């Protein structure tokens, strides 16, 4: 026992030392320009074809996506020609920019891979036109979110909504229903600020095999096209509404979590860009007080979210190695030490808020909208610099995680949190694994007219948690995350975010969208040959559980119903949930082993 205690103590001392290195590095980085190794391109090509990967390195089923050919249009006419080429040659067609979706939406998977074509919009990014009189901006599909925001702000305007992560294209953001957080005005979803949309779709031979549709809010196809997951056609141009440039003031309040399920609605109604981060193992709720302030308010702050800053490669790899060691040793307390250190550090540096672009000196932090909403400083760098990167860069063996994102009707959210608290209270340390990442991030989405958007004011909860390197490896406390996941999607009928989640989150998804048949009718009208469908996107859209096999529950491909769906040889068996007893989860139970 003494030896075990010594090793445990040694791990914790090492971990505190590691975190100290991180603190020192983050503090000193402000004195230098930020450098990071840019993320790898999503496609790698050779003489035989190209492999598409997502930015985390591995797709849900851990197979790469192969295509024989990729086209890189630079204009709308070239995009039109590419769609015509695919239609004329009866090829499956998908579009990619940075490949940040967790499901394989960009993979044109077919029974015969040679019959597929990929279009990259990475080079279709030259045009951003601000219309001062119309309070709008029209952008090419491949323009990055950061470039769009910077152009808009230079012209004296602000884009009101945007996701927290800026490493995505304009078309990718709206197609997947990406969002910030707001119940005010038009709300936090970018697609609800779209005024017009151009879509390249298949056409008859006499029309040249492809045509461009210019859609606005009066068009019956508009609400299908603004959140389409790339399944109706290729978005070519997007026109978004703007407002005169404004500033925001942000304060984080780290407080006790006792009442937050009763207070979230009031919080969202009181602050335009409110959110809440919940660290369940720490009994801590962090309220984001975030509102507009006059343009002449003092302050030139930025929000450089800690999780999206460039991390030194040794720090990312060591944090991963320590977490893997705790997993292997089933050391929950080690994970709790990590969680306590990380949450304490986030409080110290205000989660990455910086006064006057330098470092955090105190609340409130006031800055221009374009610098206070979205971040991603780990994206930018000279390629030669390999000292730091995004923490999840697949080339460095850094962080590797799942992301579950559930969207609840506001009226059901409090009961969900009460259930999660009951599960937490049985053994709070079981929740430390999620608090190492970002806890439960709670945001607000307003009701939308989009057929695949939210039909009522909704609350979104995101949580990230450890994913094993190998698909067959069981995870510490995996039963807890499975129970929370099943509670969200099955007990409370939450909708999955289209660009995130494990496959089981999409089971029964069509019944959760009252306008789903209208979306399918639009698809039939615009893409009668189904060239924009694939095995992978159908799996999400149709929401069928995968065929059950050995270990299928380990990666969320199925809900277990037999022990073999878990990993009985390692002591993981299919058991009922502890609070939501209808759930079926893979729980470590060494006493059940023969």
Description of the molecule:
The longest helix has 28 residues, at 2-29. The chain folds into three domains: 2-35 and 248-509, Vanillyl-alcohol Oxidase, Chain A, domain 3, CATH 3.40.462; 43-120, Uridine Diphospho-n-acetylenolpyruvylglucosamine Reductase, domain 2 (2-Layer Sandwich), CATH 3.30.43; 128-245, Uridine Diphospho-n-acetylenolpyruvylglucosamine Reductase, domain 3, CATH 3.30.465. α1 runs parallel beside α8. The model is unreliable at 1-17 and 23-34 (pLDDT under 50). The radius of gyration is 23 Å and the shape is globular. The chain is built from 14 helices and 27 strands. The strands form eight sheets. The chain has an eight-stranded antiparallel sheet with strand order 20-14-16-15-23-24-22-25. Strands 7-8-12-10-11 form a five-stranded antiparallel sheet. Strands 1-2-3 form a three-stranded antiparallel sheet, with no helix packed on it. It is an alpha+beta fold and 594 residues long.
Essential attributes:
3 domains; five-stranded antiparallel β-sheet; 28% helix; Vanillyl-alcohol Oxidase, Chain A, domain 3; Uridine Diphospho-n-acetylenolpyruvylglucosamine Reductase, domain 2; globular; 594 residues; eight-stranded antiparallel β-sheet; alpha+beta; Uridine Diphospho-n-acetylenolpyruvylglucosamine Reductase, domain 3
């Amino acid at each position: 026992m003494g030896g075990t205690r010594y090793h445990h103590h040694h791990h914790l001392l090492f971990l505190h030392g590691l975190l100290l290195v991180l603190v020192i590095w983050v503090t000193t980085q402000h004195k230098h320009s930020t450098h990071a190794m840019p993320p790898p391109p999503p496609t790698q090509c050779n003489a035989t074809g190209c492999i598409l990967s997502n930015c985390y390195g591995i797709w849900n089923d851990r197979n790469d996506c192969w295509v024989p050919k990729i086209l890189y249009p630079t204009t709308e006419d070239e995009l039109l020609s590419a769609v015509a080429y695919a239609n004329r040659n009866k090829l499956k067609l998908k579009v990619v920019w940075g490949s940040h979706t967790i499901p394989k939406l960009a993979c044109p998977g077919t029974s015969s891979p040679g019959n597929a074509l990929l279009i990259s919009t990475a080079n279709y990014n030259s045009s951003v036109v601000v219309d001062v009189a119309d309070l709008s901006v029209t952008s090419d599909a491949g323009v990055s979110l950061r470039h769009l925001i910077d152009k808009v702000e230079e012209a004296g305007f602000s884009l009101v909504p945007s996701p927290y992560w800026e490493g995505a294209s304009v078309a990718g953001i709206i197609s997947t229903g990406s969002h910030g957080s707001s119940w005010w005005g038009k709300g936090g979803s970018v697609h609800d600020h779209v005024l017009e949309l151009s879509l390249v779709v298949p056409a008859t031979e006499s029309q040249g095999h492809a045509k461009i549709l210019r859609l606005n809010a009066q068009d019956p196809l508009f609400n299908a096209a603004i959140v389409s997951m790339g399944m109706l056609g290729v978005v070519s141009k997007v026109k978004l509404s703007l407002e005169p440039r404004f500033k925001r003031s942000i304060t984080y309040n780290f407080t006790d979590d006792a009442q937050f399920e009763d207070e979230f609605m009031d919080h969202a109604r009181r602050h335009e860009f409110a959110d809440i981060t919940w660290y369940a193992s720490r009994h801590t709720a962090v309220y984001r007080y975030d509102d507009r302030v006059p343009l002449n308010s003092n302050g030139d702050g930025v929000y450089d979210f800690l999780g999206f800053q460039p991390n030194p490669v040794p720090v990312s790899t060591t944090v991963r190695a320590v977490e893997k060691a705790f997993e292997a040793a089933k050391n929950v307390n080690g994970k709790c030490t990590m969680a306590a250190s990380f949450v304490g550090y986030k409080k110290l540096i205000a989660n990455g808020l910086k006064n006057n672009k330098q470092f955090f000196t105190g609340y409130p932090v006031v800055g221009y909208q374009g610098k206070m909403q979205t971040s991603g400083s780990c994206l930018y760098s000279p390629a030669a610099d390999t000292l730091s990167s995004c923490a999840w860069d697949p080339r460095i063996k850094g962080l590797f995680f799942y992301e579950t994102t559930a969207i609840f009707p506001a009226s059901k959210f409090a009961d969900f949190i009460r259930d999660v608290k009951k599960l937490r209270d049985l053994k709070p340390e079981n929740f430390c694994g999620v608090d190492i990442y970002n806890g439960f991030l709670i945001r607000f989405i307003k009701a939308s007219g989009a057929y695949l958007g939210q039909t009522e004011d909704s609350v979104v909860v995101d949580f990230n948690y450890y994913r094993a390197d190998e698909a067959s490896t069981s995870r510490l406390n995996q039963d807890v995350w499975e129970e929370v996941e099943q509670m969200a999607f099955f007990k409370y009928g939450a909708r999955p975010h289209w660009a995130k989640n494990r496959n089981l989150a999409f089971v029964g998804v069509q019944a959760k969208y009252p306008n789903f048949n209208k979306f399918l009718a639009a698809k039939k009208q615009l893409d009668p040959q189904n060239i924009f469908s694939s095995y992978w996107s159908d799996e999400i859209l149709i929401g069928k559980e995968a065929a059950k096999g050995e270990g299928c529950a380990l990666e969320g491909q199925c809900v277990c119903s037999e022990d073999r769906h878990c990993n009985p040889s390692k002591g993981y068996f299919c058991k009922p949930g502890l609070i939501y007893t209808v759930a079926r989860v893979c729980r470590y139970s060494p006493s059940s082993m023969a």
